[in-house]
Structure formats: C-alpha cells, structure tokens
Design brief:
Layout (H helix, E strand, L loop, with lengths): L2 H20 L6 E2 L8 E2 L13 H5 L1 H75 L5 H7 L3 H72 L3 H24 L2 H4 L6 H12 L17 H11 L8 H7 L2 E2 L9 E4 L5 E7 L2 E4 L8 E4 L5 E5 L4
Antiparallel strand pairs: 1-2, 3-8, 4-5, 4-8, 5-6, 6-7
Helix pairs in contact: 1-6, 3-5, 3-6, 4-5, 8-9
C-alpha cells in the first residue's frame, strides 16, 4: 500500500505488541499510544493517574481523586455515547429527507409531463369533435341517399367510424392521464408530509446532540490541566485494558484473511483521513463522524453502503470476527452506535467523538457488537 500504509501497519503491530506486554504482571506502562514505544515507570507501577500502586495507592486523597476522575470519565463516556446515538438519528433523518426530496422532485416532473400530455390530448379531442361537427347532423342513410358517389360515401363512413374509435381512445387516455395526475399529487403530498416529519426528527436530534456535547464540554472545562491529563491517561488505560483482553483471547491468531481489491481502496481512503476532526453529521472531505468516514471510504471504492452505523449493522452481511479482513466494518456497543474500519494487525481506523480526530486504535478497545462486510 506504499510507505505511508506500511508505517500504519507497523504502528498497528506495535500497538498489538504493546497491548500484549501490558497484560504481563509486574510491569505497567504510561500513556501508550499507537506507533509509540511505551516507557515503564521506575517503580514498576502504572505511571500517572492511571496507576493503583506506589504513593497514589497509599494516599487516600489521591485515591479519592482517582475515583472522582473515574466517575467523570464514565459521565463523559455516557454523554458522548448519547451524542453518538443522536447523531445516528440525525444522519438517518437526513438520509431519508434526501431521498424524499428527490422523490418529490421526480413526482413534480411527472406531474408536469402528465399535464402537458393531458393538454395535448384535449387539443386532439377538440379537433376530432370539430371535425365531426363539420360532417353535419344528418343520419347516415340520408347522407348516403344525397351522396353523388355512394362508394365514396361508404369509404368516408368507414373513416368516420375509425375517427370515432380514435376519439374514444383519446377520451380514455385523457381519463387515465387525469387519474395518474391525481395519484402523483397524492404521492407528492404524502412524501411532503414524511419530509416534514423527518425535518422535525432532524431538528430534535440536533438539539439532543448539541445538549449532550455542551454538557460534556462544560464538564471538561471545569477540570484543571493536570486533571485533564490524568483523565486522558485513564481513558487510554481503559482502552488498552480492553484491547489486551481482546488480544489475550487469541483472536488475532485466527484472523488472517487478506483484503479484497475494493477493501484495500477503502482502507487507503480511510487512513488518508487520519488527523481530520470529528464533526457530527460530517461526510468529508474536511471532517467526518464515524459512519460518515466508513460510508465515504467504501463509496470511494465503488460500493455504496448505508449512511449510519445502525443501518450498516442491519443491512450489510455479517461475518465472524475470526473471518474479518481489512476493509470490514466493526460495529460497537449493543445499540450499534459506533463503527470503525478494520485495517489489519488488530487495529482499526475511526472517527471517535467530538473533540477528537480520525485515528488508529485497537480493534478490541471498545465492546464489539459484530462485523459487517460491504463487498461480499
């Protein structure tokens, strides 16, 4: 995949190795990050606020502060999770509104074409009526008697009958066109009502997102710089403990499938976005939310997939974790509120949450619901 992609794979391998070592008894590491080499603390206990040994364990105030920070971390996790759920609802409403707007436009075009057709049919029907009127009102036998050339009359009478059949056909076609127009109008009205309902759903979801993110930002703003640093270490510790537990199950040894050609292109797209900010509802190119990143990555590979993580989970084919390959999407949490792309070596690329950027992380750093494959 080129030097950039090889460095990402190397970083992911370092991540996996670091997580495996992290689980060894008697040795702990401070603030490990993908692609960096963790440094053991001199005392053998976890350095920083994440540790439980040394002076921190003997200091009741330090223990209390750690418990307070753990509670804050849990609260922040809950707030950002709720924001993610609301973001999925917003994206779903946005996608539906987009489809309904397109359908309304299509119906409006059909109504215009139908009205033009009806006008043409009315003109033809009017011309036919005028032609019949000019033929006079005498009965056919009288016209035959008065005709100088009976054969011409009979030929003309046949044409008149044909004209009458054609006129009847015009009238029937007019009636069908009128019915079509009425149905188009009903369908457009129904789609408009759905569009309005989805606009309201979007607005409600937007309020919920804004409220949850504002609450999280307010909570974080009340922390001192040192507390923010310790909180970040607690978050890293929790993620790496989860990744270590996942790796210790031996799952990585079972995962060996290679990416498909399209999967490689999707991975290349996703990893090229590393460092770009998370913005809820964003689909690039400057920012992304979690499902915005995965859907655009696969679109770049020529595969259209649902916009939201929940619909990706519902609609895309499921595969076992042991069978996953780079490019597959890992769905997280019981409510499928987060999605990431597996890039190999036990690592993912994802857009985590507000305030963060697209990054590489451990595939097992969050509770896995399952794996889906866009290009079966």
């Amino acid at each position: 995949m080129g030097s950039g992609k090889r460095s990402l794979t190397t970083a992911a391998m370092v991540l996996a190795c670091a997580c495996a070592v992290l689980s060894a008894p008697g040795v702990a590491y401070a603030s490990p990050t993908p692609g960096s080499t963790p440094t053991p603390s001199p005392s053998g206990s976890t350095a920083g606020a994440g540790g439980t040994g040394g002076a921190a364990a003997r200091d009741p105030q330090a223990v209390r502060k750690k418990k307070d920070l753990q509670a804050i971390r849990k609260k922040l996790d809950d707030l950002y999770h709720d924001a993610a759920v609301a973001t999925d609802a917003y994206n779903a409403a946005e996608e539906k509104a987009r489809r309904q707007s397109a359908q309304i436009v299509d119906l409006a075009q059909e109504i215009v074409k139908g009205q033009e057709k009806l006008d043409r049919l009315k003109d033809l029907a009017g011309a036919a009526a005028r032609a019949q009127y000019r033929g006079g009102g005498l009965p056919p036998e009288a016209q035959l008697w008065l005709s100088r050339n009976p054969q011409e009359y009979l030929d003309g009478a046949g044409r008149v009958r044909q004209g009458e059949h054609a006129t009847k056909g015009l009238l029937d076609e007019m009636a069908r066109t009128q019915q079509d127009l009425e149905q188009y109008a009903k369908d457009a009205s129904a789609q408009w009502q759905k569009l309005e309902a989805n606009r309201e759903a979007k607005a409600e979801a937007q309020k919920e997102i804004t409220k949850r993110i504002a609450a999280a930002e307010k909570l974080e703003s009340q922390l001192e710089k040192e507390e923010k640093e310790r909180l970040a270490k607690l978050e890293e510790e929790a993620a790496y403990k989860a990744q270590t537990a996942w790796l210790s199950s031996g799952v990585l040894a079972e995962i060996g499938a290679k990416a498909s050609a399209r999967g490689k292109r999707a991975v290349e797209y996703a990893t090229d976005q590393i460092g770009k900010p998370y913005v809820w509802g964003a689909e690039g190119p400057k920012s992304y939310d979690c499902s915005g990143l995965t859907s655009q990555a696969w679109l770049s590979a020529g595969v259209g997939i649902p916009r939201t993580s929940q619909e990706q989970w519902k609609q895309l084919p499921h595969v076992d974790v042991k069978d996953m390959r780079p490019g597959d999407l890992i769905i997280y949490f019981d409510d499928a509120s987060h999605v990431a792309m597996y890039i190999g070596d036990g690592a993912i690329v994802h857009a985590p949450r507000p305030g963060r950027t697209v990054t590489v992380a451990g595939a097992g750093s969050m509770p896995i619901l399952g794996v889906v494959r866009p290009d079966v």
